[in-house]
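To start, one record:
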Amino acid sequence: MVRKVGVIVGSPRRESLNRKMALAMTALQPASLALEIIEIANLPLYNQDLDDAGSAPREWISFREAVSRVDAVLFVTPEHNRSVPAPLKNALDVGSRPYGKSAWNGKPGAIVSVSPGALGAFGANHHLRQSLVFLNVPCLQQPEAYIGGATKLFDAESKLINDSTRDLLTAFLAAFVVWIEATRPRSTS
């Protein structure tokens, strides 16, 4: 069975290394996964007053529906100030509301953090894990994927050119397949 995986790219930048990495992973996906980017750049900032008034922006509704339709989520994120970028945090908030109706609930997850720096956005990776625990997103533990030096991993056409990174991503996706099957919610009927 093919599992639909929503890919959340933490950076809205046009030339984002994280978007390039997400697209590289899509090209490497095994036949049992269907990775699709769910856009977050145009989500209005979360404000509970809008949900309480029944006037949630259409962007929130569309995002929540998109997350609800996938079997699992893959986060590909940079690090901002030792944490996740604001658009990603906002997407977590939008998807987790209204209270009791979280689109994230129970979906298996995985994180790849990407940075031009040597630490590979380690801080963002672990800060995101903290939020995912609360959101009941069981997150793949191994292999970890902190990808540093990312400016040297792509050619002029944004294609992944580093064989060891390609091997890491292939192994990561294979482990994610196993994780999804082991942790996805089961029907009680």
User: Anything to note?
Assistant: The chain has one domain: 3-183. The helical segments are 17-28, 48-52, 58-69, 86-95, 122-134, 163-183.
